Structure to design on (241 residues):
């Protein structure tokens, strides 16, 4: 733990700025160098222009629900960006933040689908018109969640329940895929880990990725190039297959 000094310490001229003494990062209402007089490792701050220590923001990000909301919002923007540029109507990709927890995966899906708020500084969500399956691996299971659009050009082309069942029934899972619930628009399932029988969530995630793409191809919902190569988003799109 760093020892904090009572004397004033200059901070770098940036926003946010880092105190050269305590190495905590602070937001400041001033553009010029401000003063930081941190008094505890908990991040309490005083001084010219000091508004909030990012330690508190870091604690908020450490909350699993917050992390899932952030990741879902970013994924939603990336997905709708690719969709609007002529990319696939149905995606399959991993979601790491929930770590196999169904409730957190649902929160991530909701964040990806929520309408973009034009008043927010950073766009988040907006992908409700994109079909998607999120795969989240944890110690106990691989959790699967899929969404099929209710409107726009992808609407009505695929049932979420059929998509989920089509993946879970793949021979690679040897009958271990479990359909939990679903309807035309939303479905969830899981494959429980079992070390004794060689069921590992990370491995099953890769198998589910392949199974989902294969299912979509069979339905004519996964684009291929004229050369027969699978369509892939640009390197900077932020989507991992």
């Amino acid at each position: 733990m760093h020892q904090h000094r009572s004397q004033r310490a200059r901070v770098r001229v940036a926003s946010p700025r880092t105190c050269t003494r305590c190495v905590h990062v602070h937001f400041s209402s001033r553009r010029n160098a401000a003063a930081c007089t941190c008094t505890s490792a908990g991040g309490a701050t005083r001084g010219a222009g000091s508004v909030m220590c990012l330690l508190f923001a870091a604690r908020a990000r450490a909350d699993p629900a917050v992390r899932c909301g952030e990741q879902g919002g970013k994924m939603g923007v990336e997905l709708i960006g690719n969709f609007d540029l002529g990319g696939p109507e149905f995606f399959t990709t991993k979601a790491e933040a929930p770590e196999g927890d169904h409730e957190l995966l649902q929160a991530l899906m909701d964040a990806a689908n929520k309408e973009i708020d034009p008043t927010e500084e950073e766009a988040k969500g907006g992908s409700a018109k994109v079909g998607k399956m999120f795969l989240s691996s944890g110690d106990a299971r691989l959790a699967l969640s899929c969404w099929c659009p209710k409107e726009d050009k992808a609407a009505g082309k695929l049932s979420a329940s059929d998509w989920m069942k089509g993946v879970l029934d793949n021979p690679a899972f040897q009958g271990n895929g479990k359909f939990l619930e679903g309807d035309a628009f939303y479905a969830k399932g899981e494959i429980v880990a079992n070390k004794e029988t060689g069921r590992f969530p990370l491995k099953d995630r890769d198998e589910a990725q392949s199974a989902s793409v294969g299912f979509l191809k069979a339905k004519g919902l996964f684009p291929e190039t004229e050369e027969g190569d699978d369509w892939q988003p640009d390197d900077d799109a932020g989507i991992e297959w």
Residues 1-53, 226-238 have pLDDT under 50 and may be disordered. The CA atoms of residues 102 and 143 lie 6 Å apart. The two ends are 40 Å apart (CA to CA). Helices lie at 54-62, 64-84, 102-113, 160-168, 201-218.
